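Lecture 7 notes: from sequence to structure.
We start with the chain below.
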Amino acid sequence: MLTFTTMNVVGFCSIENLHIPLNPSCTILIKAPNGKGKSTILSALVWAIYGKNLKGVSEVTTWEKVRPKDYQGVMVEVFFQKGEHIYKIIRCQKCNIVLEDGAKGKDRLILMKDNEVVNVKGKNKLQDAINAELGLSYTLFMNSIMFGQGIKRLIQESNSDKKKIFEEVFDLEFLNIAKGIAMQDKNNLLAQANEVEHQSALLKKELEANKEAYFDLRDREKGFKEKIKSERRELKKDREDLTKQLIKKQQQLKDEVEQSLRIKIKKHTDYVDGLKSKIKHNRNISGVSLPDFVKKLKIQLDKGHYKRAKESVDIIYKAIINSDKLQEEYEDALGRLDELRTTNDKYKRLQKECDDIASDIADIDEELEKLKQEKLKVMSPKYKEKLKEIRKTLRIREGDPLEIFTAKDGEVILKKYSPIGELNEFSQEYAETLGEILGQGVVVTDLDSIIAVSKLPKKDYKEKSISNDLEQLIENRVVKHSNDNKIIPLYKDDSTSYTGQIIMPIISDSGDCIGSISVVTKENETFSEDIEKILKIAASFLGKQVQ
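Predicted structure tokens for the same chain:
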């Protein structure tokens, strides 16, 4: 059984302050001239329960002529009992009165059951909870509890008019309206379904037409990658071998140069030329014809120049002896000079080989760089445009990594790759640990959705797409603190009223921004610098887990 017991009204329309029992032991009669506020009392009751007055209007206009100097807005309290439970509804509008929980009324709606606040987030959901506890919607309440006027007219009317009156009183007209709307929705949905089916057929046909091309391109890409891999492997091996040869030949060159090869060649050349001159001189001396020498010797003897004659004989003898020695020494020096020249030629060959090897290494390095930078351009402009559309639909930015899968039937599946998404389980455990330590709500996101939550209802947060405000915050790598006097929603359609929050972007070791970690509170408290430091450490730690 449902019983309304008490109602307190403050600042509602013409009512300044009113306390009225609703369930005394007798019948309540409210008597006053028209326009004195009898209906206003009932309107306050309906407004407190459903947020709408007798006329279906939600806004309350308090008459200025009855406003006291200390007017603090509108507040209506309604007490009712259902079964063994006692309920209390508090509804406020622009109210500055401080309620039992220590906070101002403002535009709040509160439902209490047995002196405990019913914790439901959002006014709409809380209103649904009130309707469920009462077992009455606004329409049913107005057509039953408030039913009374017009009974006489209803009895006197014809059957057709009675039908119209009942439809009006019990709001049955909505059935016809709803039927029309439903039919229109049905037609719209059928049209949409037909269009979707048509588009699906076109896409399937296009997919079938492009499936063979796709697999061909995939095979070409695979073959190209294998070719590049093989070429890189061979080039690296050639480079390694050439580098070893270069080091070996450079060592040989070093040894040859250290022996002052060029200086030795010049020295030996000069030495050989000197021997050549001496041999020529001696040959000139010893090359005198025998008759001339005898004639000269006879003249010297005839004149009694025995000493000169002996000297001439000695000179000739020494010249002959020296010529043999010089010839032998000359041939020996000439052999060494040939060896030096051979070594010099070898040196020049080694130098050229080193230059050639260095050039080959440079060519290999250039080829490796080309292979590194080269990309397989296998997509036509049409496919590129399709890919752009897919990226836009999936909220994939240029440069974002993708995972590509193919089903057994050949269907191509694209999945956005999330580096931090690989740490879902770890992130959840870390968030729960951090939440227990801080005693506050902790939320971890990647670039698209919430992947971990602690000390908050998981069903309200987990896997929800992040809000545009949070996405912009992450993209700009901005640290958000509640001291900025601006609370942002964490996910789309986030109606949670946070009183404080700190948001830190998560940066990987490679310098990429991969998500965010937040701590939030719904209580009136200020975060300490220690909490901000802990959150900064947490963001840094999570960033280091992603390569």
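Points to note: Residues 173-258 form the longest helix (86 residues). DSSP finds 14 helices and 15 strands in the chain.
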